[in-house]
Structures are given as C-alpha cells and as structure tokens.
C-alpha cells in the first residue's frame, strides 16, 4: 500500500511541476491547523477538570486558552484555503498549457487513440481533479500524523484504552480501504462510459445535418441506450459498495464505542480516571473517527485522481509520428516542391510508393485518383504530418524536414475541405494571420467573399457562431481561403476545397486558383472534373503510386483512371462517426 501511494504521488509531482514554496506553505499550514484541532479537546478537558474542582480562575484561564487555540485554528485554516487556491490555479494553468501544446503538435492518428470525448473530459474534469491533489496529499500525511498523536495521547492516559483505539483504527481502516478500492475500480468504469457519451455527443454535433438528412436518430438512440445501460450498471455497483462501506463502518464504530464506554465506566469506578479524562477520551474517539474518515477520503481521492493523472499522461506521452523540426529559418523561398523516390508506410501498410514529382513555382498541380489512392497523404507529407519512410521531399532543394517549425508554417499553408472558423467576428478570424484591414479586404476580394461580407449588417465585424454555423459551408470555405491568402506562404495546398461549396460558388474556384498561381505554387487534391481541367499538370494516383502525369487533354487519351474520374460527378461522403 505504501509503495502504491508513493507511485501515485511521484507520478502526480512529475506531471504537476508545482512551485515548491506553495507546497511547503500548504503542508505547514495544514500541520498547524491540524495541531490546533488536536489541542482543543485537551483544553476542553482542563476546563471540565477545573470546574469540577471549583477552581474558577484556572477555568477562565483555560477558557481563554481554548478561545486563542480556536482562533488560531480558524486563521491558519483560512491561510491553508488560500494556498489551496493558489495551487489549484497554478496547476490548472500549467496542465491546460501542457495539453494545448501537445494538441497542436500531434498527428492525425491521435484521435484514434485518444477519443474526442475522453479528451474533452480530461480538459474539463481531469485537470481540475489534478489541481486538487496537492491539498489531498497534504491532508493524507497530516491525517496519519493526527491519528498517531491521538493514539500517543490516549496511551499516556491508559494503555488498555490505547489498545481499544488501535484495534478500532485497524479494523475501521481495513473495511474502508477495501470498500474504497472497489468503489474506485467501478469509478473508472463509469468514467469510460462518460468518455463514450461525450465522444458520441461531439460527433452528433459535428454531423447534425447528416443525421437529420439520413434519419440516423433511431440508430443513435440505440448507441445511447448501450452507453446508458453500461453507465447505470457500473454506477449502481459503485453505489452498492458505497452503501456497504457506510453501513459496515457505522457498525464497527458503535461496537467499539460500546466497548470503550465499558472500559471507561470501569476505570472511573475504580478511581483510575476522573470525569474530565472520560470526556477527553470520548472526544478523542470521535475525533479519531473523523481523522480516519478524512485520511481514507484523501487516500481515495488520491487513488481516483491517479486515474486523472494517467489519462492526462496518456495525452502528453502520446508518441507522434511527426518528426523533429530542423533549424533552417530562411523565408527566401521560390516555391519549387520536389518528391524524390518517396514512399510512406503506416502500420506496415505502404500507402505511397516511390513517388517522383517536381512542381515548379507558379504551377498548379492537381492530384487525383480513386478513394484511398494516397492523394491526401501526399499533402500530409508536405505538411510534415508524417515523415517519408523512404526518399526525401525538397523545397527549393532543401529537405523540408530541415526547416524550423515557425518558418515552415509561414511558407507552406493549407486550405482543408472542412475549414474551422472561430466563434468571433470575421475580422478577428482574419486577424490571426494579418490584422491590417486593407489586406483583409483585398484577400476577401481575391477569394470572392468580400461582396457577401459587405451585405451583412455589421460587415467584417459580424460575429460568426461556433464553426461558422450562421453562414453557409461555401461562405465559410471562402473566408478560410481568404485567411490563407493573407499568409506569406509561397506554397498553397488545397485539399478538396470544393466539397462544401454550392454549384454557383464552386464555379468561382477555377478563376480563384488561376489568380493565385501568379504568386504561389499550388498543389490541390480534387474530385471535381471541372477543377482538374484548370491544372497545368495532373497527377493520377493508383494504389499509392503515380499512374500517369500530364495535362487534361493528354490524360484523356492515355489514362483509363482519369477517363473514369472525368465521367463521374464525384459525390462526397461525409462520415459522422470517427470513433466507436
């Protein structure tokens, strides 16, 4: 048990990185206010003793001492609460920054290992529990000290009374600890179901339109029922152990209290103790119950919080496939991208094979192919979300892995098929890249969204709802494109950007791409036949390898895959469930 708690506390301290001065003050304040609480029964027994002896002077002096000790208790307890607040805020700030820093550095496999539901619960509740743990550790050690002091004080009064106290403490702790372990086990089970519920709810919010369109409600209800059934099952087992624990400790408490009263009555009648000592021992027995309960509550909380520590560590210790960034920091980039014998293997499956391709500045290259052919993976490699298993990707004859993170994110930018818009004004969404309103207007004009923004009541100051839900998917996409135009990027990656556009807006994209290529290298993944025609060159992928490269007219003659892609409307399928 000692080794177990040593491990819990060690893992917590490594994660929290608390300020030592806060920890020391927390422990010292707990030590002194706990010490004052132990002294109160002693001073109280003195008051009774002097009253029994009709010594008014000493009774009043003892009463004064009682008041001073109690006042000190309240003052030091207040200081302890303040320090607890400092520790909580410091730890919460530290943990949220750590988690956020990790989230912006992980690869696309992260949410397959750590579900979105579990991630949200970790941010919302686990970090708060971790913030509370410093106080619980302090309470845990002070609880042990309080119990020892009480047993020593009782032993100085009478050895037999001390034996009753020791036996009571051992039995009580054994029953509580065994029950709390079972409660903690099922608490973890309940947390897993909470993660599943939050995860499903997150996905429903993301795919609400598809759920309504395809009438998925009945299937979703069945998923909810399964989660609810498991949650109820584990929660009720946990509650049953709570009930058993509480009943058992009450029986033990009253049984030992009965034995204690028998011993005390005997000792009073044989003249071994007086009434003041009797009151003192009874008070300390009641205090002992409180101290043991506080100790076990703290130990249970530490054990439960260890679950939160492990969950946050799972996030922070995730080993991403993203490689370490280099030190090249030049922004003097022309924009020539070259794949040299590039292959990529993920989980023993080769998704790209021996890719050789050179893309010049001011060139638009479209990457096309059937679903699963490796189109988006080529963009992911350029974005350095993965490192090639073999070969090298160069930007102006420099290995892209050698650029430092900040510079590379400035010179290579991407527009995704599902862009994210923040719950703030259009202008503030663009401020993340460039706060100059003149530049913003120019970028929005190039993206073809300026006229629409001007029709809004507040123009560029219009507040967008979460993820831009008060504008159409096409309008959101065009704002995202404008945001990308504002960057200093020389290389633009367009990942199937016409997916969410209505037909009229989609017709504007070829003209937009043609305009952007004047000062950018553009690499785009697309399913749209009309957009393929705009490209200077088209790369046809088949099962991770380049099947053909050429212009639209050339590929119509020599590539059966391209002919097939040109003959279809390329419907997009939007998945609702990422994780079960």
| Highest CATH level, the class of the largest domain | Mainly Alpha
What's the N-to-C terminus distance? Answer: 36 Å
Give the overall pLDDT as a whole number.
84
| Structural category | alpha/beta
CATH architecture of the largest domain: Up-down Bundle
Order of helices and strands: HHHHHHHHHEEEHEEHEHHHHEHHEHEEHH
Helical residue percent band: 55-70%
Which sheet architecture does the biggest sheet show?
Answer: 6 strands, mixed
CATH fold naming of the largest domain: ABC transporter transmembrane region fold
Strand adjacency order, main sheet? 6-7-8-3-9-10
Beta-strand segment tally: 10
Can you tell me about this structure?
This protein has 580 residues and is α/β, with parallel strands linked by helices. It has 2 domains: 2-316, ABC transporter type 1, transmembrane domain (ABC transporter transmembrane region fold), CATH 1.20.1560.10; 337-566, Rossmann fold (3-Layer(aba) Sandwich), CATH 3.40.50.300. Helices cover 64% and strands 11% of the residues. It contains 20 helices and 10 strands. It has helices at 2-16, 20-52, 56-103, 110-113, 116-157, 159-206, 208-213, 217-269, 275-316, 375-382, 405-411, 426-431, 437-447, 450-455, 473-485, 503-506, 509-516, 529-532, 552-558, 560-566, and strands spanning 337-346, 349-359, 364-369, 390-395, 398-399, 412-415, 491-495, 521-525, 537-542, 545-550. A 6-stranded mixed sheet has the order 6-7-8-3-9-10, with helices on both faces. It has a 4-stranded antiparallel sheet with strand order 2-1-4-5, with helices on one face. It is elongated and about 115 Å long.
């Amino acid at each position: 048990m000692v080794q177990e708690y040593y491990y819990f506390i060690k893992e917590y301290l490594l994660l929290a990185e608390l300020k030592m001065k806060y920890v020391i003050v927390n422990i010292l304040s707990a030590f002194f206010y706990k010490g004052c609480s132990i002294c109160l029964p002693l001073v109280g027994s003195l008051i009774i003793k002097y009253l029994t002896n009709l010594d008014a002077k000493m009774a009043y002096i003892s009463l004064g001492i009682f008041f001073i000790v109690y006042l000190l208790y309240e003052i030091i307890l207040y200081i302890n609460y303040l320090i607890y607040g400092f520790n909580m805020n410091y730890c919460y700030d530290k943990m949220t920054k750590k988690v956020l820093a990790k989230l912006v550095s992980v690869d696309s496999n992260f949410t397959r290992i750590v579900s979105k539901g579990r991630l949200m619960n970790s941010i919302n509740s686990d970090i708060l529990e971790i913030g509370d743990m410093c106080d619980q550790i302090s309470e845990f050690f002070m609880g042990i000290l309080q119990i020892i002091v009480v047993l020593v004080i009782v032993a100085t009064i009478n050895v037999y009374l001390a034996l009753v106290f020791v036996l009571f403490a051992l039995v009580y702790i054994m029953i509580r600890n065994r029950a709390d372990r079972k409660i903690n086990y099922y608490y973890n089970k309940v947390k897993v179901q909470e993660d599943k519920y939050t995860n499903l709810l997150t996905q429903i919010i993301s795919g609400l339109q598809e759920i309504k369109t395809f009438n998925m409600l009945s299937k979703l209800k069945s998923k909810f029922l399964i989660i609810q059934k498991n949650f109820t099952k584990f929660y009720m087992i946990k509650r049953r152990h709570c009930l058993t624990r509480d009943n058992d400790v009450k029986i033990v408490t009253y049984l030992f209290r009965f034995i204690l009263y028998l011993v005390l009555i005997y000792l009073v009648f044989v003249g071994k103790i007086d009434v003041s000592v009797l009151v003192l021992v009874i008070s300390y027995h009641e205090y002992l119950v409180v101290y043991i309960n506080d100790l076990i509550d703290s130990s249970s909380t530490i054990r439960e919080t260890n679950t939160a520590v492990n969950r946050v560590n799972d996030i922070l210790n995730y080993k991403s496939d993203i490689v370490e960034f280099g030190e090249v920091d030049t922004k003097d980039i022309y924009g020539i991208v070259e794949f040299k014998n590039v292959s990529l293997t993920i989980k023993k499956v080769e998704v790209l094979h021996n890719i050789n391709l050179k893309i010049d500045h001011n060139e638009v290259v479209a990457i096309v192919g059937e679903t699963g052919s490796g189109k988006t993976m080529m963009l992911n490699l350029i974005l350095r979300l993965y490192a090639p298993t073999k070969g090298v990707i160069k930007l102006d004859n420099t290995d892209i892995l050698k650029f430092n993170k900040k510079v590379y994110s400035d010179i290579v930018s991407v527009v995704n098929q599902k862009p994210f818009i923040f719950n703030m004004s259009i202008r503030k969404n663009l401020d993340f890249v460039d706060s100059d309103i003149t530049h913003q207007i120019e970028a929005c004009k190039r993206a073809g969204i300026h006229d629409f923004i001007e029709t809004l009541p507040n123009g560029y100051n219009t507040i967008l709802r979460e993820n831009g839900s008060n504008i159409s998917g096409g309008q959101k996409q065009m704002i995202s494109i404008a945001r990308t135009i504002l960057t200093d990027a020389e290389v633009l990656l367009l990942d199937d950007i016409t997916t969410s556009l209505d037909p009229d807006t989609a017709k504007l994209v070829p003209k937009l791409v043609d305009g952007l290529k004047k000062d950018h290298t553009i690499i785009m993944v697309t399913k749209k036949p009309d957009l393929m025609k705009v490209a200077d060159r088209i790369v046809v992928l088949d099962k991770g390898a380049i099947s053909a490269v050429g212009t639209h007219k050339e590929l119509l003659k020599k590539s059966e895959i391209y002919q097939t892609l040109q003959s279809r409307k390329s419907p997009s399928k939007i998945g609702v469930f990422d994780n079960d």
